[in-house]
Design a protein that fits this description.
The complex is a heterodimer. By secondary structure, chain A is α/β, with parallel strands linked by helices. Chain A has eight helices and eleven strands. Chain B contains nine helices and twelve strands. In chain B, strand 1 and strand 2 form a beta hairpin. In chain B, helix 1 packs antiparallel against helix 3, helix 4 runs antiparallel to helix 5 and helix 5 packs parallel to helix 9. The chains are: A alpha/beta, B alpha+beta.
């Protein structure tokens, strides 16, 4: 899952980016409002973590502009301003959640996951597909009392495919969800992860559509 | 502790004045009544003497014997008035021989003078009136014990006193109730103020203000207004300070969590390095906030003559290495005799903050000019650079606490120029911002009033 972090404070931004990467997210970090607007226009993110006190263009303006484009991208605001008025202003401008500094990284991760689940219409953090249950938090798939452990990237690819089941996702699209701006993409990484997933979960789960990409078919049930 | 109470004061003053006035009235009334009673009794004595004089000695003797049945008793209760009582009298021959005396008459000696006299006979005071009959060569003295007269006088005084004894407590009660009722608007006002909660700094607007309390209420409202204003400023500052304090704390916390969750040594070391950087930043911020707080109570008593040129040289010397590392050329131009009374430590902080900014926002190969100049009656200090500079619109806000120019790449708390402003103002100086060298960068000048004679 790829998300955009907008935070001008160098140490905090660095820490949040590192922490979110540890939690298995793909993170792009921008330090000001204008770069955030640019990134939002050019890259498909699944969530934005937004600081309000930003140089050049304020976080609130970034948020308003995003909503003005009728984007329903989940936005979590990070701010040091904790008065009720501040929260109300943030939520009314179209934020989905609000976290006051200082916060625990684990809470930020949990809230991001919750927002993401809600955006996909789920209320518990597990994805069911046929006879298996994928729990991204623990990187596990449970199937008939058997628990299979996945790597972070395998899990990310599977989540991506399961969330867009019925749609073929290109290799580039899957790579985008795996790597941030500054990370080097290994040339055949996606193929390797797909092949590993097939080994662990059975070869019939992910289908290859030649020339297009990979697909998890819609659940017949 | 005894409280000062207007009500008690008024009560004591009013009742005291009343008692005093009544006492004076009573005394005057008593004196007048007494004089009148004496006058009346004297007139009766004189009249009695003239009546007796109209009789001859034989008749007088008969009258004297008839009186024997009714002795005069000054202490008798039966008749306080005494006007109906027969008078005691003596008849004396001109040669001093007692011719006769009425039964109640005292054993008075011969009295040669005619008219009124007050005499002490056998230990009692008597009033007498003596009249001489020239034809018959004898005289008649009519006598009356003085105690008999004093009795109605005392009686009168006692009655007046009794009235007062009843009236005074009643009057005190009435005065007390009046004062309470009179001061009720004040009590209502104090209730209205007392029942407010601490956060309510709205002006006091009771439906009716007594004229006497108007000035107090107006003064109170002005105070409330000033208080609300400074409270607003404090609130804004607290909100800003909260933001500025929380961000580095959040950074430290997040970096520490990253270090805890790091799977490899390198990212763990990196995160811990960031924790330390975050703590350094928080420390710097805390120091600046403390400095600002301390400057609130700057003490001019400890001032001494400070040579601003020397301060500039010292500060620049300390920062020289840092500036050189950024490829900046720093130059000091200090005129001699630029001395002003002040605190050398805070003036050095002022200069250091300005220089720190100039270095922070300077470009590689740029220039910084530090100048100290003497003008008539003033000493001026300037730090001018050709770095990033500040737009004219932002210059006005530079001295606001926590204000940072949007997009500033260099780290900072936004307090440096607030501190500069505060130190300058404490020394009676004025800070001005302008464009820097050759229209680029930023130029800051501080002008202090300092007479030339100050050395």
């Amino acid at each position: 899952m790829r998300l955009l972090l907008v935070e001008d404070d160098p140490i905090l931004g660095d820490g949040v980016a590192a922490g979110l990467k540890q939690a298995g997210f793909t993170v792009d970090w921008t330090r000001d409002g204008r770069s955030a607007q640019l990134a939002l226009e050019t890259t498909a993110y699944e969530l934005v973590v937004l600081d309000l006190g930003l140089p050049r263009v304020s976080g609130m303006d970034v948020l308003r502009q995003l909503r003005a484009r009728s984007s329903d991208l989940p936005v979590l605001i990070l701010t040091a301003r904790d008065t009720v008025d501040d929260r109300v202003a943030g939520l009314e401008a179209g934020a989905d959640d609000y976290l006051v500094k200082p916060f625990a990284l684990s809470e930020l991760v949990a809230r991001i996951r919750a927002l993401h689940r809600r955006a996909h219409g789920r209320s518990i953090d597990a994805i069911r597909y046929r006879d298996m249950v994928l729990v991204p938090d623990s990187l596990t798939v449970t199937r008939a009392d058997e628990t299979i452990t996945l790597s972070g990237r395998e899990c990310a690819i599977l989540v991506e495919l399961l969330e867009h089941r019925g749609t073929a996702l290109s290799r580039a699209r899957l790579e985008e969800s795996l790597y941030g701006w500054n990370e080097e993409i290994e040339s055949n990484a996606v193929e390797v992860h797909i092949s590993n997933l097939r080994k662990k979960l059975g070869s019939d789960l992910i289908r290859t559509i030649r020339g297009v990409g990979y697909l998890v078919p819609k659940d017949a049930a | 502790m005894k409280r000062f109470s207007i009500q008690r004061r008024l009560l004591l003053l009013l009742i005291g004045s009343l008692v005093l006035a009544w006492g004076a009235m009573l005394a005057a009334g008593y004196g007048k009544a007494r004089a009148e009673i004496h006058e009346l009794a004297d007139a009766r004595l004189q009249q009695g003497a003239r009546t007796l004089m109209a009789l001859d000695l034989k008749r007088l003797a008969r009258l004297a014997h008839a009186d024997a049945a009714m002795p005069i008793d000054a202490d008798a209760d039966a008749d306080h008035d005494g006007s109906s009582r027969p008078l005691a009298f003596q008849a004396w021959g001109d040669n001093g021989q007692l011719l006769l005396a009425s039964a109640g008459a005292p054993a008075a000696t011969f009295w040669p003078d005619e008219g009124y006299a007050t005499r002490t006979i056998d230990g009692r005071d008597w009033r007498s009136y003596t009249l001489r009959d020239r034809r018959h060569e004898y005289r008649v003295s009519v006598l009356e014990p003085l105690a008999l007269r004093e009795h109605p006088v005392h009686e009168l005084a006692w009655r007046m006193g009794q009235v007062l004894l009843w009236a005074l407590p009643l009057l005190a009660a009435l005065v007390w109730i009046s004062i309470r009722r009179g001061l009720e608007p004040l009590a209502r006002l104090s209730d209205a103020i007392g029942l407010r909660d601490a956060g309510n700094l709205e002006p006091i607007r009771p439906p009716r203000i007594p004229a006497e309390a108007e000035t107090v209420v107006a003064a109170l409202n002005r105070l409330l207004e000033r208080l609300a204003h400074s409270l607003d400023k404090e609130r804004a500052f607290t909100a800003d300070a909260a933001h500025e304090l929380r961000t580095p704390l959040a950074a430290i916390k997040v970096q520490a969590e990253v270090a805890l969750g790091a799977r490899d040594e390198e990212s763990r070391r990196r995160a811990i390095g960031q924790v330390i950087a975050g703590v350094d930043r928080s420390t710097h911020l805390a120091e600046q906030l403390l400095l600002l707080a301390r400057l609130e109570h700057a003490d001019a008593a400890a001032w001494q003559p400070v040579d601003l040129g020397r301060v500039a040289a010292d500060v620049v010397a300390r920062r020289a290495g840092e500036a050189a590392a950024k490829g900046l050329d720093v130059e000091v131009a200090a005129a001699p005799d630029c001395t002003l009374p002040g605190d050398p430590a805070t003036l050095a902080i002022l200069l250091d903050n300005l220089l720190d900014n100039a270095i922070k926002y300077g470009k590689d190969g740029g220039h910084i000019r530090v100048g100290v100049r003497r003008d008539p009656g003033a000493v001026s200090l300037s730090v001018v650079d050709d770095g990033e500079g500040v737009g004219a619109a932002d210059r006005a806000r530079l001295r606001d606490r926590f204000f940072r120019v949007a997009g500033s790449a260099a780290p900072g708390s936004g307090l440096g120029l607030s501190i500069v402003e505060k130190i300058a103002v404490a020394h009676g100086g004025v800070v001005e911002f302008d464009a820097g060298l050759e229209g680029r960068g930023l130029g800051v000048s501080v002008r202090f009033d300092a007479p030339q004679a100050q050395r």
